[in-house]
Amino acid sequence: MSCISAVILSCTVIDNSVMDRFGKLLRCTWNWYSGRYHKVIRGQDLLGIVLTINKMALPLHLLFRSKQGRYNTNKADVLIFMLSRLKAACDREGIDLTQVPLTMDSWFVSQPLRQRLHALGFTKIIIAGKSNYTQNRRPVS
Question: What's the predicted TM-score (pTM) here?
Answer without folding.
Answer: 0.71
